[in-house]
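SEQUENCE AND FOLD
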Amino acid sequence: MSDGSAGADDGVTTAADDGLAAGPFAAWADAMDAALAGDRDADVPCGTCTACCTSSQFIHIGPHETDALAHIPAALRFPAPGLPKGHVLLGYDERGHCPMLSDGLCTIYDHRPRTCRTYDCRVFPAAGIEVDDATKREIRDRARRWRFDHPTEDDRTEHDAVRAAATYLRERADELPDVVAHLDATQLAVLAVEVRDEFNDGDVPDPERVHAEVSDRLLGP
């Protein structure tokens, strides 16, 4: 779409449009909340897709992820721009592949960072955010195929709230904590899911409440 948002997603998956069933939206959002809270890992029907591991991704690792940090060489980590001391990024090799990937498999799977445990490319059509980085075409193409179902009013309300949050975060970043301006498409889409409750009633959100929620999510209490 010309406005940079993801394609239509009213739920019908057909062979003709080569769509992938993303499931009922509200159930997906609840599962995403649980993954982000650390209660479970994201359960993504990836099949044979490894796009997220081979698309020049920077992987954020928080200072409290001691297990992941212990299994990733210090030489592969560098400070995360715009985030407090101790937050680091894991880069990628000259092919755009995660350096912890070998022969198509993650060598630290049981110790992988929280970012990897919660990654779900369905977040892009959920938030209406398009992956516009040329190095991430495979992720973009995969994300475009997901089709959410909206069997109940809650499904539609939740989806509308996430998209409203994403629009707010993009258009009013200068009114939010400085770190928002440094977020990539994935981080922005995830943040929209996290703060959607501020947009659920359809009214104009309270800027102070949104600012506080964003600060809490990104920088901690």
Summary: The chain is about 35% helix and 10% strand. Helices lie at 25-36, 66-70, 114-118, 123-127, 137-145, 153-171, 185-194, 207-219. The longest strand covers residues 20-24. The beta strands are 20-24, 59-61, 77-79, 88-90, 101-102, 105-106, 146-149.
